[in-house]
Structure formats: structure tokens, C-alpha cells
Write a structure and sequence with these properties.
223 residues, alpha/beta
Length: 223
């Protein structure tokens, strides 16, 4: 039976690229995002191995329901990729918008916690993987960056979750890229990492033998 990967933030960029890479590698893929039209188009390209689910990942009930739909459709859950995230609209502390911080922290931090809490009961059954999109911004200091601080949380949480999952044979990986050429930025970044580079890293981590746990993959542009 084919293994199953659930991806949040799957409607574009890294999530979309990972969906295609996983399907090419023989995985079933559940695609979560708020944009139903985009998910349907991606699922149509992939075929029967894809399940599109319109979902706001900051809604715990919706996230739990999406996991249940995935398990019902494909028979289990082998990996969960918590990829959904966003940046701040205004940089810095003094000039930042606390309401915007609230929304960003909800998706970058709390939604990752919600995902882990909801997914682990199913991942325990398969000794599966939980993967998180981190960032170089979570390994370095950037002037006044609240976004970077959320990724510092992700960095620490991934290590802590790795030790918890290890107790029952599961694994957690944080992927920490530098600048990636996606719609996250207002202008194209053609010389930087491509979404497919991150997708390949995710597939590498989840396809390791049971004897190996890849806890972090740090990617930087080679320019």
C-alpha cells in the first residue's frame, strides 16, 4: 500500500512542489489550504493519489476533520508536513502591527502545535514523520523580526518533538531554508532556492530507513 503524506499550505510554492514530488515518489497526498480552486487544480494534475481539502489550519476542528478524511480515504497517515505560514506585513517592533503579529503567530506557531497534537495519534500507528517548514530566520538574528522569532520557536519545538516522537519510533524534521523564490516575496528571486529544492529535502527526510532520523535539513542558495 502506498504511504500517505498530508501537506498544509499546499496550494502554491513549497507545498505545491512537495505534493508533486511526493506523488512522483509514489505517495498519496492530502492537500490542505484555504484556496479550494487552487487545490482542485493541483489534485487534477496529480490524479487519484491526491485528496484536496479546503481547510483553515488555525481551526483545530477543521484540521482534525481533515486528518480524519485523509485516513478514511487512504487508510492511514505516514507523514504530516506542517508547511503553512506567513510573514509580517510591517517589519520591526516599533513600527509593527500587534494585530498582524497575532495572526502571524497563530499560523506560524499555534497551527503547528495544533497539527502535531491532531496528527500524532495517527502517526503513532505508522511510526510516521512530522515535518515542519522552518527558516534561516529561525537560526540567526534579524533586526526586529517577529517572523524570525516565530521560526525560532519552530526550531526549538522541532527538536523537542523529535525526542518525544522517538519514544515510539516516530521522527520529526525541521527544514530550514534561506531565501526561496516563491510568492512569499513581492518580486521574483530567480537566483535563490527553488520550491522544488525544499520539496526534495522533505522527500529525502521521510523516505529514510527506520534506523535513521533526519532532524534538520538546512538549505542555502548556492549563489
Amino acid at each position: 500500500m502506498a504511504k500517505t503524506l498530508l501537506i498544509t499550505g499546499a496550494s502554491s510554492g513549497i507545498g505545491e512542489a512537495t505534493a508533486h514530488a511526493a506523488a512522483k515518489a509514489g505517495w498519496n497526498v492530502a492537500l490542505l489550504a484555504r484556496s479550494e480552486d487552487k487545490l482542485q487544480a493541483i489534485a487534477s494534475d496529480i490524479g487519484d493519489a491526491a485528496l484536496p481539502i479546503a481547510c483553515d489550519v488555525t481551526n483545530r476542528e477543521a484540521l482534525s476533520n481533515a486528518i480524519a478524511q485523509t485516513v478514511e480515504k487512504f487508510g492511514g497517515l505516514n507523514a504530516f508536513y506542517a508547511n503553512a505560514g506567513r510573514g509580517a506585513q510591517s517589519p520591526g517592533i516599533e513600527d509593527g502591527d500587534p494585530d498582524d503579529w497575532h495572526d502571524m503567530i497563530h499560523i506560524n506557531v499555534l497551527a503547528v502545535l495544533y497539527a502535531a497534537h491532531a496528527a500524532i495519534p495517527e502517526l503513532k500507528k505508522t511510526k510516521g514523520d512530522f515535518v515542519i517548514t522552518g527558516s534561516k530566520a529561525g537560526r540567526d538574528h534579524f533586526k526586529g523580526s517577529i517572523y524570525g522569532a516565530t521560526k525560532w520557536f519552530v526550531q526549538g519545538f522541532a527538536g523537542n518533538l523529535s525526542d518525544e516522537m522517538r519514544e515510539w519510533g516516530g521522527r520529526c524534521t525541521v527544514v530550514t531554508p534561506g531565501m526561496v523564490d516563491t510568492a512569499f516575496f513581492d518580486e521574483p528571486k530567480p537566483g535563490k532556492l527553488q520550491a522544488e529544492d525544499i520539496a526534495n529535502a522533505v522527500i529525502y527526510a521521510i523516505e529514510q530507513p527506520a534506523s535513521a532520523s533526519v532532524r534538520e535539513i538546512h538549505l542555502m542558495p548556492n549563489d
